[in-house]
Design brief:
Strand order of the largest sheet: 2-9-6-7
Helix content: 40-55%
Order of helices and strands: HHEHEEEEHEEEEHHEH
Length: 296
C-alpha cells in the first residue's frame, strides 16, 4: 500500500504540473491573439511606424487617381467610384501629416456584390470552384471543403465580375466581415453573400487594404452599422461608404512591411503552440504508462 500511495502521489504531482503547463499555454495564446488586433489598431491610427518622406499626400493620390479614372463608367453592379473619390476633412480621430480620411468606394476600381442565388453544385471535380462564405476566413481562403460548378453555372455566376488573383473577398453575412485575398492558380466564382473588392495600387496598396479590412478600425464600423439588426450583415449600399484612413504611398508600403513581418512571427508562435499542445496531450498517458510498468 505504501508503494501504491507513493505512485498515486507521484502521478498526481506530475498531472498537476501538466495542467499548470496547459494553463500557461492558454494564457500565452490569449496574449498572442489579443496582440494582433491591437497592432492593427495602432497601424491605422498612424502610430505603428515612424513618419517617412513622401512625394504625394493621400489627398494628392486620390486626386491623381480621379484624373486617371475620369472616363470611368458606373454600372449597376459595381459600387466603386474612383473617378469621384471622397476626401474628408474630419473622421473618427486625427491622422498624421499627409494622411486623409476617405471611403472604400473611393480607393477601389471594383466593389461588386455576388449573384445572390445558390447554384446547383457539381458532384464532379470540374476545377471550377464556387466560393461560399464558409470558405472565407480572416486572411486566408479555406478550401478544405470545395464546391464545384459546371462551366455554364460558373460563367453565369461570374457575369458581374470574374475574380482574379489579388482580389479581396468580403463576407456580407453568415459570418459578417471575414476578408481574404484570392491566391494565384485557382478559378473561382462568388456565390451568395460575398463581395469582390479590387484595387489597382494607384491610390492604395492591396495588402494595406487587406490589413485594414481585417482590423478593428473596419470591424468596429460593421458592428456600428449593424446595431439593431436581427441578423448582422453589411448592406450592399452601405459598403462603399465605410471610412478608411489613407496614408501616402510610402507610408502604406512601410506599414504593410511591418504588419506582414509581425504577422509572420505570430504565425510561427502559433505553430509552436500547436506542437507544444500535442506534446502536453501525450505527456499524461506516458506518465500513466510508466506508472503501471513500475518505472515511475
Amino acid at each position: 500500500f505504501d508503494e501504491q500511495r507513493r505512485i498515486v502521489a507521484r502521478i498526481e504531482a506530475l498531472a498537476a504540473k501538466v495542467e499548470e503547463a496547459r494553463l500557461l499555454r492558454a494564457t500565452a495564446i490569449e496574449e498572442v491573439n489579443a496582440h494582433w488586433p491591437a497592432t492593427l489598431r495602432r497601424a491605422f491610427d498612424g502610430k505603428l511606424v515612424s513618419p517617412v518622406a513622401f512625394k504625394l499626400s493621400a489627398q494628392e493620390l486620390l486626386k491623381q487617381s480621379s484624373v486617371f479614372h475620369a472616363g470611368y463608367q458606373e454600372t449597376k453592379n459595381n459600387n466603386a467610384y474612383p473617378h469621384k473619390p471622397q476626401i474628408l476633412g474630419d473622421g473618427p480621430y486625427g491622422l498624421p501629416e499627409g494622411w486623409c480620411w476617405t471611403t472604400l468606394g473611393s480607393v477601389l476600381t471594383h466593389m461588386v456584390d455576388c449573384v445572390n442565388d445558390t447554384p446547383n453544385f457539381s458532384e464532379a471535380d470540374t476545377g471550377l470552384l464556387g466560393l461560399k462564405t464558409t470558405n472565407i476566413r480572416p486572411y486566408r481562403l479555406d478550401l478544405q471543403r470545395r464546391w464545384y460548378m459546371t462551366a455554364d453555372d460558373f460563367a453565369s455566376w461570374n457575369r458581374r465580375q470574374s475574380p482574379q488573383a489579388g482580389d479581396i473577398v468580403l463576407t456580407r453575412e453568415a459570418p459578417v466581415g471575414n476578408v481574404c485575398m484570392i491566391p494565384e492558380g485557382i478559378s473561382v466564382c462568388l456565390t451568395q453573400r460575398l463581395m469582390l473588392l479590387r484595387a489597382e495600387n494607384r491610390a492604395i496598396q492591396s495588402r494595406y487594404l487587406l490589413h485594414f479590412l481585417n482590423s478593428p478600425c473596419f470591424t468596429d464600423q460593421i458592428a456600428a452599422s449593424g446595431r439593431g439588426q436581427t441578423h448582422p450583415h453589411i448592406r450592399v449600399g452601405d459598403a462603399p461608404h465605410f471610412l478608411l484612413p489613407l496614408p501616402p504611398m510610402e507610408r502604406q508600403i512601410k506599414i504593410v512591411t511591418e504588419l506582414d513581418a509581425f504577422q509572420s512571427k505570430l504565425d510561427s508562435v502559433k505553430a509552436l503552440q500547436v506542437e507544444t499542445a500535442a506534446e502536453l496531450d501525450a505527456m499524461l498517458p506516458a506518465i500513466l504508462d510508466k506508472a503501471f510498468k513500475g518505472e515511475l
